[in-house]
Write a structure and sequence with these properties.
The complex is a heterodimer of chains A (448) and B (384). With 448 residues, chain A is α+β, with helices and mostly antiparallel strands. Chain A contains 6 helices and 30 strands. Helix content of chain A is 17%, strand content 36%. In chain A, a hairpin with a 3-residue loop joins strand 16 and strand 17. Chain B is built from 9 helices and 11 strands. In chain B, helix 2 runs parallel beside helix 3. The chains are: A alpha+beta (448), B alpha+beta (384). Chains A and B meet through strand 1, helix 1 and helix 2 of A and strand 1, helix 4 and helix 6 of B.
């Protein structure tokens, strides 16, 4: 007779001392997990509810400016360095870890229109209404709030007021925009190149982070223009129905960029194919003034005249998150932090606000087990995201009444237009009123 | 207000058939099978070709990818199918890491397994296991009903005449026993100073110590249950309760987060909280609990009808909440609005009055029918 029965030694299954970790045994056999799917659904539902409970996105406010904040930049080297310029000409360098400004100075007469860090993060460039471009050192031994006359390390003089500035990703070159786009070499007092393509004023300019010599600008004649600074020529021009206020390249798919448009939407374009947008990002109810990509390239943040900040996935038509505050005014500028965990917004109310990129995420470092649990719950939330309750709870966001009303009104207007178009189509010759894709509707023309 | 549409849908989904997952029959399946064969254990994937044991870790039919036209969706489903397949393969592969193996009983030579007595088995197994063969002599208040807890650690015995006992089988002692049952309501609140209900029987006896013994002839068996995660069969009979060894009957590997025989106090508390958090909603308890998360492939018209009902319910509720709109600016007085409203209110009194008037009218008409009125009728002589 051969016999063997299940026989367990208790010490193999329990811990010896209280300080030991509790022994855990898994058996994935489905027979041991009755009602598995129903229970996991319940877990997913609880998880989305808890997300709502823990959603406390506002971290802190960085106050100090005495006028509306007009521009923003983060260092490409240090996570904590952020510079901001305001409408009274003040320039401030912030330390995000403490929330204090490290130094401040009256940099320009009139607005500071643009600010950017040099590629090594040691210098700061600013431009303003006073036709000057100035370079500042990062480290000044000045007390917080002290009004010391900090001197610029370099000043370049232009012919006209500037509206924006950007630093080259590899070389020490500066691009400014205003009446034209200028490329500056800090060693020279005159611009290296002047680039223009029939526009009155260029409102934003951005170097491509991968193809370093490609430059994109948006102008008040509703155009988006690409340039090559090696040949100092313009490459392509795209005209939309309304003006694009700001442009931002996707840092991971650097042939794609997104523009913040005056028509309440954002548009993602492929620089190689201008005949259609890749995606139209809707949700704002007023002009979008600024946009910034997370370094991961998976998300971007946008700020609008409707006093809300929204976070979009790079390929999603609707925002995944909206932030607003009772006292928060028009957003002029937004920024994603270098670690993609924080979002900054600068508004008319003289404040810079620091938000979490994921509203319910914990700020403290997580234990590995906590981390694993959250990953598991994320997976469950994803699996059951289409079920009615999970969808409803996870999508719901509280909105100020004005924005809610505006959203509804926009819906009514859209429906009415559609109805009218359909009626026209019905009473026209077949094919006379063609269907135009949403992604092509706003494109007026493309020039080479 | 009962949501009729929702209710209907629930009932429908509850009775919907969910097809069992098709067996995996591609290369991934081969892999699972080969691993399972090497891992041995209680995995029933040891034998024939076309073995279905590999599907132990699969959870239903595969999705049909071929017909999907949406490229993005197609890719997503393809990827998720691959993940499911890999998860099943990995689970099968990880079987060799499970700490315990199933028991077995084999006959050698001329032996027959059904001839083996418990005393033979007892001699052949280790001391710990041999202690699992015992009989509780409980003749006075029997016959007894019994049940094991989900983890197999606790045994509950209940005699027909009111004797109750809970035994901890791991420690081998009776946790509590007696003839007195108290039911407490809101036991944790301060107000509860006495039990909600009590049940008392006159019997007085403690549990007998477990004598080792085999089943005797001529006993009447009442209940039979296998003990979870052990090779043990519990039998309650006319003489009390017996526990015998049945090699190979139990699942050797438990899952700590489902049912843990070695659970400590803290783990038990955690588990209770989690069980409460994950308690299923009443409308999810059904014959087929897997309906949640399935795509509703029912008849389109039925789904549309359900949606319409739900919408109507919402609409009426919303209309009820809606404030009355004020038209006719300036001429709109509260009194007028009230009157207007009252116009359509159906009251019993009003209805009576209406009926009364209608009745009168009818009478009149009847009369008129009988006696047609002409111009010269007034000069007619009444004949009475």
């Amino acid at each position: 007779m051969k016999v063997k029965v299940i026989s367990r030694n208790e010490s193999d299954y329990t811990r010896e001392r209280k300080s030991d970790i509790v022994k855990v045994f898994h058996n994935p056999d489905p027979a041991l997990h009755p009602f598995e799917r129903a229970r996991e659904y319940k877990r997913a539902l609880n998880a989305v509810k808890l997300d709502k409970v823990f959603a406390k996105p506002f971290a802190r406010s960085l106050s100090g400016h005495r006028d509306a904040i007009s521009c923003f930049a983060r260092s490409k080297q240090r996570l904590v360095d952020v510079a901001s310029g305001s409408c009274d000409g003040e320039l401030r360098l912030w330390d995000l870890s403490t929330g204090n400004s490290r130094w401040s100075t009256i940099a320009h007469t009139g607005f500071v229109r643009g600010v950017t860090f040099s590629r090594d993060g040691e210098n700061l460039w600013s431009c303003g209404d006073d036709k000057l471009v100035k370079m500042w050192g990062r480290d000044y031994e000045s007390e917080v709030g002290e009004e010391r006359a900090v001197e610029p390390e370099l000043t370049l003089m232009g012919q006209h007021a500037f509206l924006g500035i950007d630093h080259h990703w590899k070389e020490s070159l500066i691009a400014t925009c205003g009446v034209d786009v200028h490329i500056w070499d800090p060693q020279r007092s005159e611009p290296l190149h002047t680039l223009s393509w029939g526009s009155e004023s260029v409102v934003s300019v951005r170097f491509n982070p991968v193809e370093h010599n490609v430059l994109a600008s948006t102008a008040s004649d509703r155009s988006i223009i690409l340039y090559d600074i090696r040949t100092a020529t313009s490459l392509r021009k795209l005209v939309l129905n309304k003006r694009s206020n700001r442009l931002c390249w996707n840092p991971m798919e650097a042939f794609n960029f997104v523009v913040a448009n005056e028509d309440h939407n954002l548009y993602t374009f492929d620089m190689r194919k201008f005949d259609s947008a890749l995606c139209v990002h809707k949700d704002h109810v007023s002009a979008v003034l600024d946009v910034d990509f997370a370094p991961t390239g998976r998300e971007f943040v946008s700020g609008s005249y409707d006093r809300t900040v929204r976070i979009f996935k790079y390929n999603a038509g609707r925002s995944r998150e909206v932030y607003h505050g009772k006292r928060m005014q028009r957003i002029w500028s937004v920024l994603f932090s270098g670690d993609a965990k924080w979002v900054l917004s600068a508004s008319d109310d003289f404040n810079i606000r620091l938000w979490k990129a994921n509203a319910s995420e914990s700020v403290k470092p997580l234990l590995p087990r906590e981390q694993r649990k959250l990953e598991y719950l994320d997976k469950l939330k994803d699996r059951f995201k289409e079920t009615a309750d999970v969808k409803r709870i996870s999508r719901h966001r509280h909105l100020p009444k004005a924005i809610l009303k505006a959203t509804k009104l926009k819906g009514i207007i859209k429906d009415s237009k559609k109805r009218k178009e359909n009626n026209v189509r019905k009473h026209s010759k077949p094919g006379a009123v063609p269907y135009v894709a949403e992604r092509k509707k706003e494109i007026v023309k493309e020039l080479e | 207000m009962a949501k009729e549409g929702k209710e209907r849908k629930r009932k429908r989904m509850e009775h919907a058939k969910v097809p069992a997952r098709r067996t995996l029959d591609d290369e991934g399946d081969e892999e699972i099978r080969s691993w399972r064969q090497t891992s041995g254990g209680n995995a029933n994937g040891s034998s024939k070709s076309g073995d279905k044991g590999a599907t132990k870790y699969s959870r239903g039919d595969k999705n049909v990818i071929r017909k999907i036209k949406d490229k993005k969706l197609k890719m997503q489903i393809k990827r998720s199918e691959r993940d499911i397949r890999e998860a099943a393969a990995k689970a099968a592969r990880a079987e060799i890491l499970l700490p315990a193996e199933a028991g077995h009983l084999e006959a050698e030579g001329m032996e027959k397994t059904h001839r083996f007595q418990q005393k033979d088995i007892k001699q052949a197994v280790d001391i710990g296991s041999s202690k699992k063969i015992y009989t509780l002599r409980l003749e006075e208040f029997g016959p007894y009903s019994f049940d094991y807890s989900r983890s197999g650690r606790y045994l509950l015995l209940g005699g027909k005449l009111g004797h109750l006992a809970v035994c901890d089988l791991l420690l081998g002692n009776a946790m509590c026993f007696g003839t007195h049952v108290e039911l407490w309501k809101d036991a944790l609140s301060e107000r509860a100073t006495s039990p909600y209900m009590t049940h008392h029987t006159k019997a007085k006896q403690s549990l007998a110590c477990p004598p080792p013994a085999d089943l005797e002839q001529g006993m009447r068996v009442k209940d039979v249950y296998f003990r979870p995660f052990e090779d043990v069969l519990g039998i309650s009979h006319s003489h009390g309760f017996s526990s015998i060894l049945v090699p190979g009957s139990g699942e050797p590997n438990f899952d700590s987060f489902e049912a843990n025989p070695f659970q400590n106090k803290k783990q038990r508390r955690e588990a209770e909280i989690h069980a409460l958090l994950e308690k299923l909603d009443p409308d999810m308890i059904s014959l087929n609990p897997n309906f949640i998360g399935n795509v509703d492939t029912y008849d389109k018209d039925v789904i549309a009808e359900e949606r319409r009902l739900a919408r109507e319910e919402n609409l009426t509720e919303r209309q009820r909440q809606k404030k009355e709109k004020r038209h006719a600016r300036g001429r709109d007085r509260a009194g007028k609005r009230y009157k207007k409203k009252q116009f359509n209110v159906i009251e019993e009194r009003k209805e009576d009055a209406r009926r009364h008037i209608a009745g009168k009218k009818e009478d009149k008409e009847d009369k008129e029918d009988k006696e047609p009125v002409g111009v010269l009728d007034r000069f007619r002589v009444k004949l009475d």
